[in-house]
Amino acid sequence: MATAIGWRMTTRSGGVATFRSDRMREHRQRAGLSVEELALLAGVSPETVRKAESGARKPTGRVVVALADALRVSVEVLAPPGAVGRPTLKQLRQRTGRTQREVAEFIGMSSQMVSRVEAGVYRASDPGRWAPAYDVTPEQWLSAWQAGRDERRQRIEGARGGSRG
Q: Which residue in 15, 28, 31, 90 is a FRET match for 130, CA 20 to 30 A apart?
């Protein structure tokens, strides 16, 4: 039911940065659900729902997808697309709610390889094989891989530049 279209940045803890707790509360109340009922429908703990709704913690992409499904709304209702340039592979994967392990199983690779490709350490020889696991075209997948690689380069250069001074 929930679709994961659009780009969202994640927080350091892995939560979806653009998640809107006020929208979740509004849709939960509109549906006539208690926190406990929503948690049951979404397959998460009531504490997860409480923290997300209060804004105490941003839920992960997987939890946002589950909450959206339970509330019968699109993911974009709960986490509108943010002002992000090019998304990284990690961001693409998180918007689908998949784990690295699930992507690895989908494409027949190890989780470690998925991690290294997402980090821009390795490049996949066949983006067309990987793209469906991220719900994008091969061109979008390659652009996201390049964004992740560029982000990695910037971190490395920043660390090298910071140690010079």
A: 15
Q: Compute CA distances 12 → 106, 115, 140, whole Å.
A: 26, 16, 24
pTM score: 0.55
pLDDT tens across the length of the chain (165 residues): 444 434 344 444 557 777 889 999 999 999 999 999 999 999 999 999 999 999 999 898 889 989 999 999 988 888 876 545 678 898 888 778 888 999 999 999 999 999 999 988 899 989 999 999 998 899 999 999 998 898 888 888 888 775 544
Q: Is 22 exposed, middle or buried (0-12, 13-18, 19+ CB in 10 A)?
A: exposed
Instruction: Please name the residue that has the structure tokens 């709304």.
Output: 73
